[in-house]
Design a protein that fits this description.
Elements lengths: L5 H17 L3 H20 L6 H23 L3 H23 L11 H17 L8 H9 L12 H10 L4 H33 L8 H32 L17 H7 L2 H12 L9 H19 L3 H26 L3 H19 L4 H14 L7 H9 L1 H10 L3 H10 L3 H25 L11
Helix pairs in contact: 1-2, 2-6, 3-4, 3-5, 3-6, 4-5, 8-9, 8-19, 9-15, 11-12, 12-13, 13-14
């Protein structure tokens, strides 16, 4: 089941909301958390019922390990506590490795990369004293299986929402904000990302004799925009749903395409993943505290693992190494050089580096890379441009303009300006926006086909 489906929008979500809001708030939200836990299992089981066992296993394992870590910390036995942290990591990573890197002999459970990182961070944070162990397994199960952000994040650390699991309330303000955020994300996915994906799909369907240089460049650009609006749209929907249920979770995107360096780009793109690797890999390895050579080695390790997290294919590992290379260059000298250059030059540099990274990200097989690289290098069999290329670009120019504007602060600034004028007008325009985007999205869904989020495969 996906957020951008009629089944979810008109059946599953209304039923869950109804049951959730009539559930009593007593016992520190245990009943409401039970509703979230059970509904999340139904949500996950809709497409992959067999893997509920895997999720429940992970939940129980980390619940027990977290409790044992806290027990031995209280007994001042850090050696035993470390053992259970290590045991949790081994079990979680073994399951992830078995299903994700077993040579495709096993089907990949949707969202396993995300909830595995969440459960691993729980035992580590308990060991560090940054989170108290959860004694109520229903609360912990709700955290692990939480359907609004289960499949593709943001990766939420237990310490970020442990208090909210017990003490949250769903106010009118939170529900209103969550609804706007959810519908905005729905529009990003259905109206923008899916349409950009159709353009990329059209371009990749061209034979080598049909693919021109311009169509290859345009097609890859549309893929990049598809990934951004698809993933940031999912994050918006997750943040919105969590707000409706009374939670506040971290942002996952912050206009990455306005960045002036690759270092800044990765502080704005998939923020929760970058934060996870920084706190649980980079800093424990020594970060930048052990000299230049060790710092670069740590960056290399983090970005090798970041690529591997996305998939075992050579293209994903090369993609991680690609970004790691530029981050090391920036750490070494490039970042200081960029600070002395005009912002425009810095933006162009960042966009160019990011653009070519998606050549590695777009295809699992080397054939797709070869065809596109050859065409983009000006050696396309079809030449630089064809009538079909011009038709494709002209036909999608309005979509491209919307996508590019949507990557900037402009929509946010316009919204902020309007909201600062009149509260009644703001409320009216916000309502019109939500209704219009929702109706348009539903219209697309009625006429469309299955539209899973791209990050489901990770």
């Amino acid at each position: 089941m996906v957020f951008s489906s009629l089944l979810f929008l008109f059946r599953f979500l209304p039923c869950v909301l109804f049951i959730y809001f009539i559930a009593p708030r007593c016992m520190k939200n245990t009943w409401k958390n039970l509703v979230l836990f059970l509904s999340s299992l139904v949500f996950y089981a809709w497409g992959e019922p067999i893997y509920i066992v895997l999720m429940l296993f992970s939940t129980v394992v980390d619940y027990i390990n977290g409790g044992l870590v806290a027990y031995f910390i209280n007994k001042d036995n850090k050696k035993a506590a470390k053992f259970f942290v290590f045991l949790s990591a081994i079990i979680n990573l073994s399951l992830l490795g078995l299903f994700k890197y077993s040579g495709f002999t096993l089907a990949l459970p949707i969202g396993i990369s995300f909830y595995t990182f969440q459960t691993m961070s729980y035992t580590v944070d308990v060991y560090r004293g940054e989170a108290s162990p959860e004694k109520n397994i229903i609360n912990f199960g709700a955290y692990v299986a939480m359907f609004p952000q289960l499949i593709a994040g943001p990766i939420v650390r237990f310490r970020d929402i442990s208090v909210m699991l017990k003490e949250r309330t769903s106010t009118i303000e939170k529900i209103s904000y969550g609804t706007v955020r959810f519908v905005t994300g729905l529009g990003k996915k259905v109206i923008l990302a899916n349409q950009a994906g159709e353009v990329f799909k059209t371009v990749t369907s061209y034979s080598a004799m049909q693919l021109s240089t311009l169509s290859a460049w345009f097609g890859l650009l549309m893929f990049i925009l598809q990934v951004y609006f698809d993933f940031s749209g999912y994050s918006d929907m997750a943040i919105g749903l969590m707000s409706i249920f009374g939670f506040k979770i971290p942002e996952n995107f912050n206009y990455p395409f306005v960045s002036k360096s690759i270092t800044e780009f990765w502080r704005r793109w998939h923020i929760s993943l970058g934060t996870w690797f920084k706190e649980y890999v980079y800093i424990p390895l020594g970060g930048s505290r052990k000299g230049t050579v060790r710092t670069f080695l740590n960056i290399f390790i983090v970005w090798f693992l970041t690529g591997l997290w996305h998939g075992a294919g050579f293209n994903f590992i090369a993609w991680g190494m690609y970004f790691g290379f530029f981050l090391i260059l920036e750490k070494l000298f490039l970042l200081d050089m960029l600070k002395k250059l005009p912002n425009t030059i810095c933006h162009i540099y960042t966009l160019v580096v990011t653009y070519f990274s998606f050549l590695l990200f777009a295809w699992d097989d080397i054939t797709g890379h070869k065809i596109f690289v050859k065409a983009m290098a000006g050696m396309a069999d079809a030449g630089f441009v064809t009538k079909g290329t011009m038709y494709l670009i002209v036909n999608n120019i309005c979509l491209l303009i919307l996508l590019v504007i949507g990557c900037t602060y402009l929509p946010s600034k316009i919204g902020t300006y309007i909201c600062s004028k009149n509260e009644i007008v703001t409320s009216l325009l916000q309502t019109i926006f939500v209704i219009a985007v929702f109706i348009l999205s539903v219209a697309y869904l009625v006429n469309g086909t299955y539209n899973p989020f791209l990050y489901f495969r990770f």
